[in-house]
Amino acid sequence: MTKRRRLEQALSLKDRLAAFAKAARARAAKLAPGVERDHLLHKAGQADTASRLDEWANSPGLKPPR
Question: How far is residue 7's CA from residue 24's CA, in Å, rounded to a whole number?
Fold first, then answer.
C-alpha cells in the first residue's frame, strides 16, 4: 500500500479561502457581464460560505452530536 503524501499548509484554510475569493472577485471585476463572470462570483461566494462553515465547525461553543 502506498503512503499518502502529507502537505503542511503555510496559511490557514480561512486565509486560503479569503485569498481565493478576493482573487476571483478581482478577475470577475475585469470581465464583462456573462457566464464566466457569474461563475467566478459564484465560486467566490462558495469560498465565503466555506470559510464561515469552517469558523462555525471550529468554534469553541459547538456541541458534539448526541
Answer: 24
Band (6; pLDDT cuts 50, 70, 90): confident
pTM over 0.70: yes
Helix crossing, 13-29 with 35-57: angle to 10°? 160
pLDDT in tens, 27-64: 999 999 999 999 999 999 999 999 998 888 888 886 66
Q: Which three cell numbers stand for residue 45?
A: 461566494
Q: Which residue has the cell 452530536?
A: 65
| Structural Rg of the chain based on CA atoms | 16
Cβ contact 18:9 at 8 Å: no
Q: What is the domain partition of the chain in residue ranges?
A: 13-57
Query: Degrees (nearest 5) of the Cα angle 9, 54, 59?
Result: 110
